Amino acid sequence: MDLTIEGKTYINGNFEDCCIGITDGRISAIKKILKEDEHYNFRGKIILPAGIDIHVHFRDPGLTHKEDFSPGTMAAAYGGISCVFDMPNTVPQTITLRSLSDKIISAKKRAYVDFGVYAGITDGNIKNIDELAKKCHGFKIYLGGTTNSLHFNSNNLKETFDKIKSTNKPVLIHAEDNNCLVKHKLKENSLVDHMNSRPAECEETAIKNILKASGDTNTRIHICHLSSIEGLELLRKRSKNISCGVTPHHLLFTAQDDLKPQSHYKVNPPLRSNFDREALFVALKNGLIDILESDHAPHTLEEKDKEFNDIPSGLPGVETMFPLFLHMAKKETLSFQRMISLLCEKPVELLNIPKGKIEDGRDADFIVVDLKKDCKIKSENLHSKCGWTPFEGLPAIFPECVFVRGEKLIEDYEMLGAKGFGKFVGE
Ligand SMILES: [Zn+2]
């Protein structure tokens, strides 16, 4: 063994006082007593698996004035996330083998934590799915228009699901129906206008189309950032191959809240009513929702401070997601079991990667948390290049230490890790 760590550790749904042995970046033993020369004792704190964020937009390549893989993955590390999965709506879009390879090569030089990528599916590249599968962890489909999104006609869903099935990779879907969005489009001055411009009906139509096209296929389908009661109701009785996610912002904010400036909270799908928000929270607690995903979509303050109608949708969140929920777990708003399932266990199941659980053979990715160290989120303490947060002032608990593959990336809330340490996961 190379090193051992000791503390109150989350294993199989419970906390146990134990020691974890690490060899070559993997967990090689879990016992009551283990001690190597390099030994860390985290008495009085808890050790949890590090989180996985299945949904980030690091804008790299092409839009790196907003974010790139260095600050993006640094922000992830500070927020207790050891692996991120980047979406394809960069410039160029990752819809070819070449653009996927280029993104991976560039990200390897810049990443602080491990990462994976999605291939975007458009009407034009469905035939290339087998080839694209060699370089991606999953596929992404946009059924409705959003920032630099990829055009896809929902009539192609069935054929696409059939093709993806043989790759054994999941497909993630932005579920807002484009015809519906076009029909309701209006000039917007506020979050309520934005909600009315993209009504829940559009999410409902998109999910109906997905369920109809999926039929009895076993293709793994993940519905991203669910936002409405209507969408939730459709997914209440779903087959096992279908999962769904929700973002912290849809759980914490509504279009009717007194949010300022309004433009900072413009996001797709939009923030909705308090009925929707409450229903999502109940679903989060009772297990109807599988995954928490940040949809980290940073835009600069300059871009976000223009006329409401013209500003891009999206907000940052990779660094604050786990800390917000650690605070909720401490306050018993949500159990530790649910939180770990949502942020660690279900994401690794979806993407089939050897992380997310403290068990023999998996990557030694942990966070160490001192539950007494509550704080308020402040943008000046965060690390995304965009420099602002919609969660300003909310209570959170950040991890004190973060280990990725047995390396101490963060110690005493400070970065020890280096750019380029992050690996393309599974390679
Ligand atoms: Zn997104």
Helix content: 25-40%
Please state the structural category: alpha/beta
Low-confidence stretches: none
Spatially, the strands of the biggest sheet line up as 3-2-1-4-13-16-17-18
Number of strands: 18
Tally of helical runs: 13
Question: How would you sum up this structure, described in words?
Answer:
The structure is a single chain. Helices cover 28% and strands 22% of the residues. The chain has 427 residues and is an alpha/beta fold. Strand 16 and strand 17 (407-411) form a beta hairpin. Helix 4 (157-165) packs across helix 7 and helix 7 packs parallel to helix 8. 54% of the residues are buried. The model has no long low-confidence stretch (mean pLDDT 96). Bound molecules: zinc ion (ZN). Zinc ion binds at residues 55, 57, 87, 295, 297.
Summarize the structure.
With 427 residues, the protein is an alpha/beta fold. The protein has helices spanning 69-78, 97-110, 129-132, 157-165, 178-184, 191-197, 200-214, 229-235, 248-252, 274-286, 301-304, 321-330, 336-351, and strands spanning 3-11, 14-23, 26-31, 39-49, 51-56, 81-86, 114-120, 138-142, 171-174, 221-223, 242-246, 291-292, 366-369, 375-376, 395-396, 401-404, 407-411, 414-415.
